[in-house]
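Standup notes
- HV: blocked on the assembly model, inputs below
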Amino acid sequence: MSPRAQVYILAALLTLLGASLTIYKHFALGFPLLPGEYRTVWTIEAKVRFNADGGPVKAALTLPRAQRNMEVLGETFSSSGYGFNIVHEDDEHRAVWSRRQASGVQSLFYQLDVHQTPGAALEQSLDLSTEVVKPMLGAREQEAVRQAIYSLVEAGRARSSDVSTFTSELLLALADTRNQDRNLIFGYYKDRSFVDVALVVLAAADIPAHRIRGLYLEDDRRRLDPEDLLEIYDGKRWVVFEPTSGTPGVPKNFFIWQRGGKSLLDVEGGRNSGVTFSVISNDVPARDVAMLSTSKEKEALVDFSIYSLPIEQQSIFKLILLVPVGALVVVLLRVFVGLRTSGTFMPVLLAIAFIETQLLTGLSIFVLILILGLWVRFYLSRLNLLLVARIAAVVITVVILMGAISVVSYKLGIEQALTVTFFPMIILAWTIERMSILWEEDGPYEVVIQAGGSLLVAVLAWWVMTNRYIEHWTFNFPELLLVLLGLVMIIGNYTGYRLGELARFRQLVR
Amino acid sequence: MQFRLPALRLPPFFRGGLVSPFKLRKLGILGMNARNVRYIARYNDRDKYPIVDDKLNTKRAARRYRIPVPDLIAAFDTQPTRTRIMQVIGPLQQFVIKPARGSGGKGILVIVGRDGEDYVKPSGNKVTALDIQRHVSNIHSGLYSLGGKPDRCMVEALVDFDPVFDKYSFEGVPDIRVIVFRGFPVMAMLRCSTHDSDGKANLHQGAVGVGIDLATGKASHAVQRGVRVDTHPDTKMPFADLEVPGWTELVKLAASCYEMTGLGYLGCDIVLDRKRGPLLLEANARPGLAIQIANGIGLRTRLEHIESLDMEHLEKNVEERVAYSMDYFAARTTL
C-alpha cells in the first residue's frame, strides 16, 4: 500500500475512533458538548426529630430507591453520637440510627443530591402485593358510612369503563365537597387524610392500591411534609394517581421517596417523632453531574482518564492538552500560508505564556525582553565568549530582566507584569541568540520578518487556545486529540501551493 | 558588527497581489509542499542525508567518485586552540572557513587577502585574528548547524575563480546550481551577487538569479527580487552575452552527484575554477524553488517527465543521461 493511502486510512480510523468516543461520552455518559451547560441538582434533606426517653434509641427511616428519571449523585448522613447502618429488607432500604442512651430533642439528618433526567418516572418491575384488605365496616352505627362508600363506588363504576377511569371518577367524587356521601365519609374519618380515605374506598371496591410518599421538588422549601400519591393495580400494571385531581401519572418534579411497604419512619425509645424535608436546587456544571453519575460505575473512559488525576495535575493538563491545538495552528500556517517563524514550535510556547499573562501584557513583556536582550547580546558578542557561555550569559540576563521587570512594575502598581515569570527563559535566551545571528547574517529586516511571523502565529495560537469551546473540548473530550492527529496527518499530505507561493511565483504567470 | 535600521519596504508578499493556484499548476510550478511530500520524502532516503549535510563527508565521497572539489586545507574536529588556528591560517593569504553542517550559506567566512595583522574580506572589510578565532569557536558550538548540534569546522582553499563571471558579479562569487532528479539534470541557474545582496548569492537577499539553458549553457532569463532584469544592476552587463564555458563538463559533474550521493532529488552547487574547471562546492538534499523564478518556468512538468521514464532510461550512464536532458530540456528562448 502506498504511504499516501496508509495515511488516509490511518487518519480515517483515528478520526472515527476519536469521534465515536466523543459521541459515546456525550450521549451515554452525559458529558456536555458545549461549555457552560448547567444542570439542576436538587439537594433534599430529611430531618428526623423526636424526643428521646433517656434509654436506648433506634430510629429507622425508609430511604428512596434509585429511580429511572432521577439520578442519585450522592448521599450524606449526619448523626453525631449515633451508630449508623443501612439495612436492606424486602426491596426496601432503611437508614437505621441507634444509640445506647439519649434524652431530649434529637435531630438526625439524611441528605441526598438528585439530578432529574428525562425518562419515565416509574419502573414497573416492582413486585408489590396486590392483596386487598377489606375495610372493617360491620357495626350498626357505621351502616350509614358503609352505605355512602358503596354508593360512591356504584356511582363511580357507572360512570367509568375500566379500573383506571373508575379510580379517576372516585377520586373526583371524593374531592367534591358538595357530594353528600363524601361528606358523610369524611365526617366519620375525621382524623384521616384524603389518601387514607381513598385507600379505604378503593379497598371496598376491591382494587389493590397503596400510597406513594414523596416530595414536590421546588427550590428553597423548608419543613416540608411528605406528600402522598395513590398507586392502583388495574389488573396488568400499577398506575399512579395524583389524589386530589384524579389525574393519572406521576406529576412533574415529584420525587418518590417511598413506594408502598412499611411506614416512613419508626422510632423506638422516643416520642413525638416526625420527618420533615427541605429542598434546595443548585445549578451545577453539566460535566460535574456527568462525572458524579459515572463515577460509581467506574466507566473505563472516565476512570482511566485525566479526571482520575489530582486536581492540581488536572489543571496542568488543561494547559498541556491545548498544546496540540497550538501545534495545529502552526501546521496550518506553515503548510497553507507559508509563514516563516523563528523556531518551528516556539510560537506555541509563546502562546502558552500569553495564556497566563494575558495577551497585551505578554506581548509587551516579550518585546521588551527581546529588545533589551538583543541589546545586551550585541555587547556580549564583542567580548569574544564561547557560544554556550554567551547563551548562558543571555539566560542570566533574561532572568535578571524578568526580576527587574517584576519588581519595578510591582512598585509602580502594575501587577499584571508579575506574570513575566510564565515565559520560558531558556527559549527566550535562544530566541535572542538566534535573532541576533539573523541580524548579523541577514540584516534587521529578516529579524523583523521572523519575529513578526513568530508573534503573529503566537497570537493566532493564543486566540484559538483561549477559545472557550476549544478549552472545553480538549479537556473534557481528550479523545478528540485522535481526530486532531488524523487531521494533521491529512494536512501533512497536502501537496498544493502555499498562500505565500501564490505571491512568490506571481511573475511566472505573466 | 553593523547596526542597520530595517529598510522601510513592504514585504514582497504584499506587492502585486496573488495569482490563482490553478494557473500555477497549469504552468507546472512546483510548490514547497509538493516538493517536500512528492520528491524529497519519496526519493531521498534519510540514511543518505549525512553525505550531503556534512561537507566533510561530501568531500570524502567526491574524492571516491573523482568529482573535483575545492582543496581542504584543514578540518577541526574539536574546539581548536588559538595556536592551532594560527598554525593553519597563519601562512595563508586566501582561505575560506565554513561549518561542515551549515546550511543556506550561513557561517561562511571568506578571506581574500592580508593587510598586516588583519585579514581582508571580499567586501574590503577587515577582520582580526581574534574575530576569526571567535568565528571558529561559534562554528564548533553549533551556532550554524541544524538544531544547534556541535559542528566541525573546515578551512578550505579559496577557489581561484574563473574570471568569465567577473562582469556579472559584484563583491562576490557566482555559483551555478543544477537540480538533478534521478540522475537527470533538469534545471540550472547562475546566482550572481549584487551590491544589494551584500556579496551573497542568496536570491532572497537580492542576488540575481540567471536561468541557464541546459542545452547550451547560455542565459535564458534573469530575475532580481522577483523582477525580470536584462543587465546586472551593478555592472550593467547584459545577461544575453553570458555563456558558461565548459558547460557539458559542468552538467556531467552535476549528474554524477546522483551516483555519489544516492539521492534522487538533489541540488548541486558548482563553481568554476580558473585552472581546474567546475568544482563541486556542496550538494543539497533540499534545494529551494527559486530556480523556477530564475528560469521563468516550472519544475514540476520536468520532474514528472523524468518520473514517467521507464527503467531502461533510468539505467543509463552519466553521459547518456546528460545528453538526454540537454536534448529534452533545451530552453525555448534565450536572452
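- HV (later): unblocked. Confidence is low (pLDDT under 50) at residues 1-8 of chain B. Chain B touches chain A through 53 residues (CB under 8 Å).
- Next: hand off to the docking folks.
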